Amino acid sequence: MSEDDSKRLYPLIAGFVDSVNEIFAEHLHIPMKHSYGDEVSGVFRTPLPCYLAAEEFYSIVRDITGFRYCVAEGSLTFPSADMRKVGGTAFKRANMVMESRLKKKKRRFCEWTLDDSSLSATVTSLVNLCYELKQRMTELQWEVYAGLSNDMTITQIAQEKGHNKNSLYQVNSRSASEVIFNAEIQLQRLLSGYGINGKHPATEKHTLSRDIRKCNGKA
Asked: Quick one: CA torsion of 164, 169, 175, 177, rounded to 10 degrees?
């Protein structure tokens, strides 16, 4: 990573961490923290906010750098705001997943390890599928996808970016945005009720970007 990219990246990480900690305060056992130069970690009470935060982080750093992440479900041994003092199966699982990834040289975007192994495999596969499809998008396809993700219409995106509306319809039709949106809706349905009385109720598509940008004074 170049020095200029590093200078761009670290303020974005700091803003992201602060925003997530504010927006998802009630969903966090331990607030997110940026440490060790390239590590961001936190302890969520339920998996959906964790998924949403990871997706938003991807959107923020996509044009600067790549990253990998893992999510592990488990218990906490010692209640503390200091991540280094907590311990428990959640941290052991996360460490095992990361060590396994390094040994086997896995390049997948993410690994989910929940108590429900079938759900873990499904979520991991769907998130990685969406990631690979997003990585193949052109810059313009990504702009359209990002706008649609924030509840904008093609017309609004065209006006904001100074593009021809009909051209953007064609750009969008040649991308995999519909596949991604459908997969994201299913992911949010699967994760929305996990850990809440064992239920997995359907839910509408959540949008985090708008709230994050409001927190950062960008909307």
From this structure: 120
Both tokens of residue 38?
């390239």
Going residue by residue through the chain, which has 219 residues, state the pLDDT in tens, using 9 for 90 and above: 777 878 888 889 999 999 999 999 999 988 998 886 678 888 898 999 999 999 999 999 998 888 889 999 988 877 666 666 777 888 888 888 877 776 666 678 899 999 999 999 999 999 999 999 999 999 999 999 999 998 899 999 999 988 889 999 999 998 999 999 999 999 999 998 775 444 333 334 444 444 444 333 333
Amino acid at the residue 115 = D
pTM attached to this predicted model: 0.81
DSSP 204: P
Q: In 189-207, which positions are buried (b, 16+ CB within 10 angstroms) versus exposed (e)?
A: bbbbbbbeeeeeeeeeebe
| CA 215, 39, 102, 93 torsion-angle sign | negative
Q: Give all strands (DSSP E) within the chain, no chain letters.
A: 28-35, 39-44, 69-72, 110-113
The answer to whether the CB of 70 falls within 8 A of the CB of 98 is yes
Buried b (16+ CB within 10 A) or exposed e, 26-59: ebbebbbebeeeeebebbbebbbbbbbbbbbbbb
- Please tell me whether residue 30 adopts helix, strand or coil conformation: strand
**Which distant-in-sequence residues (6+ apart) come within 8 Å of 40 by Cβ?**
13, 16, 17, 32, 33, 34, 57
